[in-house]
């Protein structure tokens, strides 16, 4: 078996990629910025910066994802392709509003990317990495380091990295801004913007939706040549290994899925708890574990208590279909984004459930005919380096989890949407609502 080790990924010292002098940032001195840049490009366990040691990339497993000869740029279609006909799906001419209220104050503050002289504009983007990051500088060596390693493996010219940074007080923005020369030297199209939108103030879901839309602006506006089969890799601030990212991309391809998600966890005690329970919904329309009206998470260990088939696949670490997921990291087709799909808040005037923007995103994916959504339980993520180590020790690395898997057993018999989906505006206020409520009115 051939491998592409993390410790031998043709280590390219940052200083070899970029001769630009690092200047002091708004928060961090140049010396600290340089230390983070070196750690991102050469992840070493001996570094002063805490990190998560990851397995080597299995070239044999993931080689089908690598970009070959660059594809010529195709003209944009005059109109999006029609969605599959169904009694519950709209026609291709249907138009959905992006927000239930005007988002005029929620637009990105910075301009979209300038053209880059050393990047071939005729190479189509197959992999579009998108992130919203704030106050997560300790994660950058692992998170951005993994992304850089994956990009090097897939082929930099076919990748774009779009990051929106949220006015971080810890220097996250200083490091992300300083990445530009080295990423462009690799051949990556790097789009970096800052935002002053704070989701804790005002309409939280509307602002979170706006923040998720911001890094996708190059796709919305058609400023990058996107391949027909392009994928968006959208990551939260998680301690992700390169193989975590590659496995989500691979499963999207082999399952012929429209969207794949990881499983994300948090340590509120000694044992990890599934984190994204407010967002994720199974094919029975229910949450991944039961939360009673008093908000107690005492049953968090009993995942898929009322979905035996899903529970069986989860416990055997096989992909399973879901109505909605996000779970810290997701890979989805760029096509619906190019066709007009946006993150949004709920249509309150139509009686639509108040819920998180990823649930609504998945709901709109189903509505547009992109309902092949899968969770990949071999990919397990946490939100800190320390707990990430604990989680990998407990749940296993991807390479361990899939060692004896075969593609046939991973296959999913895709089903239509559930009739109803659990709505949880609050833990106390829970009810089932028709899955396409507000979209048919």
UniProtKB/TrEMBL annotation:
Q: Which InterPro entries match?
A: Mannosyltransferase_CMT1
* Protein name in the entry: GT alpha-1,3-mannosyltransferase CMT1
Q: One Pfam family name from the record?
A: CAP59_mtransfer
Q: Which UniProt keywords apply?
A: Glycosyltransferase, Transferase
Give start-end of the signal peptide.
none
> Which PANTHER family does this one have?
ALPHA-1,3-MANNOSYLTRANSFERASE CMT1, CHROMOSOME 8, WHOLE GENOME SHOTGUN SEQUENCE
Which one of the record's GO molecular function terms can you name?
glycosyltransferase activity
């Amino acid at each position: 078996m051939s491998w592409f080790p993390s410790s031998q990924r043709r280590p390219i010292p940052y200083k070899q990629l970029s001769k630009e002098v690092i200047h002091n940032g708004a928060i961090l001195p140049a010396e600290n910025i340089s230390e983070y840049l070196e750690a991102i490009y050469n992840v070493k366990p001996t570094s002063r910066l805490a990190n998560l040691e990851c397995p080597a990339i299995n070239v044999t497993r993931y080689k089908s994802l690598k970009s070959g000869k660059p594809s010529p740029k195709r003209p944009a279609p005059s109109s999006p392709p029609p969605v599959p006909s169904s009694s519950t799906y709209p026609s291709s001419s249907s138009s959905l509003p992006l927000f239930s209220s005007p988002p005029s104050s929620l637009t990105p503050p910075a301009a979209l990317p300038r053209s880059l002289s050393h990047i071939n504009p005729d190479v189509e983007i197959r992999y579009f990495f998108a992130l919203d990051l704030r106050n997560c500088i300790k994660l950058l060596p692992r998170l951005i380091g993994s992304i850089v390693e994956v990009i090097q493996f897939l082929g930099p010219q076919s990748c774009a990295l779009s990051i929106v940074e949220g006015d971080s007080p810890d220097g996250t923005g200083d490091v992300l801004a300083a990445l530009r020369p080295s990423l462009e030297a690799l051949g990556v199209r790097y789009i970096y913007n800052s935002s002053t939108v704070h989701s804790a103030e005002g309409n939280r879901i509307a602002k979170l939706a706006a923040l998720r839309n911001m890094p996708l602006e190059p796709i919305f506006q058609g400023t990058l040549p996107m391949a027909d089969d392009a994928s968006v890799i959208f990551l939260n601030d998680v301690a992700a290994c390169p193989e975590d990212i590659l496995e989500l991309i691979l499963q999207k391809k082999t399952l012929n899925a429209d969207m794949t998600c990881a499983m994300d966890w948090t340590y509120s005690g000694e044992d990890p708890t599934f984190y994204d329970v407010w967002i994720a919904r199974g094919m029975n329309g229910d949450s991944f574990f039961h939360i009673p009206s008093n908000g107690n998470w005492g049953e968090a260990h009993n995942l898929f208590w009322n979905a035996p088939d899903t529970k069986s696949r989860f416990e055997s670490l096989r992909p399973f279909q879901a109505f909605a997921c996000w779970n810290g990291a997701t890979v989805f087709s760029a096509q619906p984004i190019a066709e007009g799909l946006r993150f949004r808040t709920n249509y309150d005037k139509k009686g639509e459930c108040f819920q998180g923007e990823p649930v609504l995103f998945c709901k709109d994916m189903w509505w547009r005919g992109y309902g092949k959504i899968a969770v990949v339980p071999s990919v397990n993520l946490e939100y800190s380096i320390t707990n990430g180590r604990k989680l990998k020790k407990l749940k296993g690395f991807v390479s361990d989890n899939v060692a004896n898997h075969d593609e046939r057993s991973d296959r999913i018999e895709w089903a239509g949407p559930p009739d109803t989906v659990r709505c949880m505006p609050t833990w106390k206020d829970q009810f089932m609502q028709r899955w396409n409520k507000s979209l048919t009115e």
